[in-house]
Amino acid sequence: MIEIAHPAIGNEEIAAVTDVLKSGMLARGSVTEEFERNFADYCGVSHAIGVNSGTAALHMGLLSLGIGHGDEVIVPSFTFIATATSVSMCGAKPVIADVKNDTYTINPDEVSENITDKTKAVIGVHLFGQPFDIDALEEICDDKKIFLVEDAAQSHGAVYKSKKVGGFGKIGCFSFYPTKNMTTIEGGMITTDDKELDSKIRRIINHGQSAKYLHTELGYNTRMSNVSAAIGNVQLSKLDRMNKIRAENAERLCNKITAKGIIKPFCNKGSKHVWHQYVMEITKNFSMERDEFSGYLKDNGIGTAVHYPIPVHMQPLYKNPGYKCPVSERLASEVLSLPVHPGVSAGDCDYIAEVINRVK
């Protein structure tokens, strides 16, 4: 089976973890601090703060911005649920907006229409490894004096107009879940150029401590461990190479798949897509329904996934007849992800395309 995702863990990661285990310094320490410095340098930002998940990165980041009860934060409907639930965790209201037809990222026009006097931030998601329209969102946020937050959980190393993502918004939030472009098994990172915000986040993730056993504000325990950071340091050193393989696999699939009724992924000019997922649309003009097609590929040894089958505005948690997100609803019924991770070979890509093109 060609798996839809597979973490690229090798002997270097195992050795790095072994060194930490032997040291006895397992919780947050010098290895985590090293990873934070390395990740900040990689993203071209002043500060990076390691946490224990991508969801924690969003939650802690929003809390550091003062997001709370009575506030509204605009989020896209076509995304993983954590983009919205992180807002709810702060006691604020996620206001759900539709996405663009081509990039599947948040539609700036929809953002403008949803801004009220309660809006405090907009979360743009660099979905599947492709940056959202940062220029348009920055203009809106600057004009309305609200925060721009980058959900970069799927876009480590992605570039928008010669600059890596994670350095545009007030904060950037990354995930290191095993299926991501790089992993720490579980983990996340918050990036920022704001020194005071960096200090505040570090307090919030560590029980609100401003000094040892001195707790000056409500805090949480969402720190990253040295064990996770050890994996992260090795993975970060491999990230560009792994992203290059993803891009080569995606290009090969785009060139080889010729079946009618399939819309292949769109790449925005001026951006570098890092292909967390290779997502295509199975339209009504294709000879199989999406789920039947997925089963056909599975029978031929090809793993697939649907990212995402239920838009945020249709989830029981947030379902509201007032939300109109037709693009997100259409995508949820049509998208299908193919394997594109570094463990997929050129021959695998040729085989995947061959199996797809057999369908008449």
What does this structure look like?
This protein is an alpha/beta fold and 360 residues long. Helices cover 38% and strands 16% of the residues. It contains 11 helices and 15 strands. It has helices at residues 11-23, 30-43, 54-64, 82-89, 108-114, 134-144, 195-204, 226-256, 290-299, 326-334, 346-357; strands spanning 47-51, 72-76, 93-97, 119-125, 147-151, 159-160, 163-164, 171-175, 188-192, 209-211, 214-215, 262-263, 271-272, 278-282, 335-338. The protein has a 7-stranded mixed beta sheet with strand order 1-9-8-5-4-2-3, sandwiched between helices. Strands 7-6-13 form a 3-stranded antiparallel beta sheet, with no helix packed on it. The protein has a 3-stranded antiparallel beta sheet with strand order 12-14-15. Helix 2 runs parallel beside helix 8 (226-256) and helix 8 packs across helix 11. The longest helix has 31 residues, at 226-256. The radius of gyration is 20 Å and the shape is globular.
Compact description:
This protein is an alpha/beta fold and 360 residues long.
The tally of helices reads: 11
Give the helix proportion (percent range): 25-40%
Task: Kindly report the oligomeric state of this protein.
Answer: single chain
Write down the Rg.
20 Å
Q: In one word, what is the shape?
A: globular
- Low-pLDDT residue intervals, each spanning 5 or more residues: none
Overall structural class, as computed from helix and strand content, comes to: alpha/beta
Largest beta-sheet details? 7 strands, mixed
Mean pLDDT, to the nearest integer, reads 97
